[in-house]
Specification:
- The protein is α+β, with helices and mostly antiparallel strands and 285 residues long.
- The protein has three domains: 101 residues, NusA, N-terminal domain (N Utilization Substance Protein A, Chain:P, domain 4, 2-Layer Sandwich), CATH 3.30.1480; 78 residues, OB fold (Dihydrolipoamide Acetyltransferase, E2P) (Beta Barrel); 97 residues, K homology (KH) domain (GMP Synthetase, Chain A, domain 3), CATH 3.30.300.20.
- Helices cover 40% and strands 29% of the residues.
- It contains six helices and eleven strands.
- A five-stranded antiparallel beta sheet has the order 6-5-4-7-8, with helices on one face. Strands 1-2-3 form a three-stranded antiparallel beta sheet. It has a three-stranded mixed beta sheet with strand order 9-10-11.
- The longest helix has 35 residues.
- The termini are far apart.
Length: 285
């Protein structure tokens, strides 16, 4: 690759990866310095690029003779294609890291997505719209992050709410990628759904999920009464019973919990008595 073509390709790559000019120049200078330092052994290479003209200046520092600097002319550069490949990879990684930082602002939140693909093991690929600045992103929900009663029951195109658990940069072979991990078993899911769907919620509203068995039941502690339509909508979305305990402090919460257990016991007692009566009748026969 000719040097002039190399400079042109640098400008094209900067536009392709949509990185700030300062980040592009810093990444290119650092990558070229590392690659050339491995070629010129015994010398520390520093590369400087003029942001206006893209003129490249290469300085080599040697500890011989008390430490000296020398200029390496651009014409002496060799292995331009190899340099181009290293710079392209560095810009790809920088672009992915920048996108990861943006997406992490949405992590630990709940968002609605569309199922786009389902793997053989039941894991899901879900597409989200994170707003005009971020656009569409795709996350991965492993099958172990789904409640047991939901595994194998999803269809492409289905819309569901997911907890955006984490976002990290990863390498797939030699290509940098974004890994956005999703979760449907987190306690954050009922907490944030109740808060989002609570219309005209009080400012001092606090909602805490103290216990959750995904797909079966959730126990929610809250400072205010949750509207019935909100509670029903969240229970339907999660496919589980959502029990609400209302209290301003620990004493009130414990009182509400004892009341809940008492109501459950009162409902279960007739069933248990009926079962015992049936068993007694069977034994007599």
């Amino acid at each position: 690759m000719h040097l002039d073509h190399f400079k042109t390709s640098l400008a094209e790559m900067a536009a392709l990866y949509r990185l700030p000019p300062v980040t592009v120049l810093d990444t290119i200078e650092r990558t070229m310095s590392e690659v050339l330092s491995s070629r010129y052994r015994g010398e520390d290479i520093q590369v400087r690029i003029d942001e206006r003209t893209l003129e490249i200046r290469i300085l080599a520092f040697s500890m011989l003779n008390g430490g000296t600097w020398r200029d390496i002319p651009e014409a002496n550069l060799s292995g331009i294609k190899n340099l181009h490949r290293h710079i392209q990879g560095a810009l790809q990684r920088a672009s992915v890291v920048r996108e990861v930082k943006k997406i992490r602002k949405h992590c630990n939140k709940v968002s609605q997505g569309v199922v786009t693909r389902i793997d053989r093991d039941g894991s899901l690929y879900v597409e989200f719209d994170l707003g005009p600045q971020q656009g569409l992103v795709t996350g991965h929900c492993p099958s172990q992050n789904l409640p047991r009663n939901e595994r194998g029951r999803y269809l492409p195109g289905e819309e569901r709410y997911f907890h955006l658990a984490s976002c990290t940069p990863v390498m797939v072979g030699q290509v940098p990628r974004i890994r956005l991990t999703l979760d449907r078993t987190s306690k954050r899911l009922p907490e944030q759904l109740l808060a989002q769907w609570f219309e005209n919620a009080p400012q001092d509203l606090r909602i805490t999920c103290r216990m959750r068995q995904p797909g079966e039941r959730s126990e929610i502690w809250t400072t205010h009464k949750i509207p019935k339509q909100t509670l029903t909508a969240v229970s339907k979305e999660l496919g589980e019973h959502v029990f609400i305990l209302i209290g301003k402090n620990g004493v009130e919460i414990r009182k509400a919990r004892r009341s809940l257990f008492r109501r459950r016991k009162e409902k279960q007692l007739p069933r248990e008595l009926e079962f015992l009566a049936q068993r007694t009748e069977e034994i007599r026969r």
